[in-house]
Specification:
The structure is a single chain. This protein is an all-alpha fold and about 200 residues long. The chain folds into 2 domains: about 70 residues, Homeodomain-like (Arc Repressor Mutant, subunit A); about 120 residues, Tetracycline Repressor, domain 2 (Orthogonal Bundle), CATH 1.10.357.10. The protein contains 10 helices and no strands. The longest helix is centred in the N-terminal third of the chain and has 28 residues. The chain starts with a helix and ends in a 5-residue tail after the last helix.
C-alpha cells in the first residue's frame, strides 16, 4: 500500500513540475531534464510513468483541468453574466494555463500534444450551453453560439495575456484591481446589449 502511495506522490510531483515547465516555457522550450530537476527525480523515472514528452503534456493538462473546481466550468444561467464570470475564473484560476495557450500561438506543435481532447470538451460544452440558452430565447436567434463563445473567450483572455497592449491602449493593465472592475463592468454592458430581451 505504501508503494502505491509513493508512486502516486511521485507521479503527482512530476506532473506539478511539468505544469510549471510547460506553462512557463511552452512545449518546445520544455526539457524532460528540467522537469526531472524541478521534481527532484531522475530523468529515467519520468519515462517510467510517462511514454514521453507528448504523453506528459497531455496528462499534465488533463490533470490541471480535472483540478479546476467544476463550479468554475459551469456557466451562469443568465447569458449577461457569462463574460464577467469567465473573466473572474480566468483571473483567479487559469492565468498560468492561459500563458501556455499564448505559447501555442507562436509554436508549431505536433498533433494533439496540448490536451486538445479534454480542452475541446470544455469549450464545446460552452457552445452547447449557449445553444441551449438560444433555444430558451435568452440569446438572439441570428447569433451563432460558437462565435459567441469565441467572442467571450477573446474578451476575457486578451487583456489578461497581453498586458503591454492593454496598457498601450488604455493606460492600465488587468493587474490593477480598478481596471479589473472597469473591464468587468464593460463586459456586462456589452453583454446586456447583446442579450437584451424584447418583451
Amino acid at each position: 500500500m505504501g508503494e502505491i502511495r509513493d508512486a502516486e506522490r511521485t507521479r503527482k510531483k512530476i506532473l506539478q513540475a511539468a505544469k510549471k515547465e510547460f506553462f512557463e516555457r511552452g512545449y518546445h522550450g520544455t526539457r524532460i531534464e528540467s522537469i526531472a530537476k524541478r521534481a527532484g527525480v531522475k530523468k529515467q523515472l519520468i519515462y517510467h510513468y510517462f511514454k514521453g514528452k507528448d504523453d506528459l503534456i497531455n496528462q499534465t493538462i488533463a490533470d490541471f483541468v480535472s483540478a479546476v473546481p467544476t463550479e468554475n466550468l459551469t456557466l451562469p444561467t443568465n447569458p449577461v453574466d457569462i463574460a464577467e464570470f469567465r473573466l473572474e475564473v480566468n483571473l483567479n484560476n487559469l492565468r498560468d494555463f492561459l500563458k501556455f495557450t499564448a505559447w501555442e500561438a507562436v509554436e508549431e506543435l505536433p498533433h494533439n500534444v496540448n490536451g486538445e481532447e479534454i480542452r475541446s470538451k470544455v469549450l464545446q460544452s460552452y457552445n452547447a450551453d449557449m445553444k441551449s440558452k438560444q433555444e430558451m430565447g435568452l440569446v438572439p436567434k441570428e447569433l451563432d453560439p460558437a462565435l459567441i463563445t469565441l467572442m467571450m473567450s477573446s474578451l476575457t483572455i486578451y487583456p489578461l495575456l497581453y498586458d503591454n497592449v492593454t496598457r498601450l491602449i488604455t493606460g492600465h493593465t488587468l493587474e490593477e484591481p480598478e481596471f479589473q472592475e472597469k473591464w468587468a463592468q464593460f463586459l456586462r454592458q456589452i453583454s446586456e446589449r447583446i442579450f437584451e430581451r424584447e418583451d
